[in-house]
Amino acid sequence: MYHRHVGFVWRTLRRLGIPAAELEDAVQDVFLILHRRLDEFDPTKASMPTWLYGMARGIAANRRRKAARGRRPDGVSLVPSSPLGPEQHAERAEAERVVGAFLDTLSPERRAVFELCEVEGLRGSEIAKILELNVNTVHTRIRAVRALFKTYLAQMATGAESGVNRG
């Protein structure tokens, strides 16, 4: 179970604002809760990623409250690291910067739907369960955010062609 879902939990916690220095402990907390509550899991009501996302969200909320008392969480990496050459690393960093800047323009509701769909690859029904929304609301938000992203990328391309620095 751990090996199958650790990447998802790690990325989820990271996007939810857990600082890099606390990620390992937060991931461990999620899997400790999973271990304690595994007998409560009902696959007819939710998928494992849906269930894990709920746990991660709770852990992240608790840690954010603690962090707010003393320091701000550091930046969020949207793409897991891997051994890359300099050119691929630069391309990935630029893509991450563009997507991160776009995500910063979204409301928390739209951002969550976009990340779960486009980054994590979850289905609308899974997202609806995680976020406790009507599945039609999820699909409407996905379509709207995809359209916004397409417009955002077109504006970025137009800015790049006209020599405008949007960085």
Per-chain topology:
Elements: H1 2-15, H2 23-37, H3 48-70, H4 86-104, H5 108-119, H6 124-131, H7 135-161
Helix pairs in contact: 1-2, 1-3, 2-3, 3-6, 5-7, 6-7
Helix content: over 70%
Gross morphology is globular
Largest sheet: none
Q: Kindly report the average pLDDT value.
A: 80
What would the CATH topology of the largest domain be? Arc Repressor Mutant, subunit A
Count of DSSP E strands? 0
Uncertain ranges: 71-81, 163-167
Task: Indicate the radius of gyration in whole angstroms.
Answer: 17 Å
Roughly how many Å apart are the termini? 41 Å
Measured by DSSP, the beta-strand proportion falls in under 5%
Number of helices: 7
Number of domains: 2
CATH level 1 name of the largest domain:
Mainly Alpha
Q: What is the CATH superfamily classification of the largest domain? A: Winged helix-like DNA-binding domain superfamily/Winged helix DNA-binding domain
Can you tell me the CATH architecture of the largest domain?
Orthogonal Bundle
Summing up helix and strand content along with how strands pair, one would put the structural category as mainly alpha
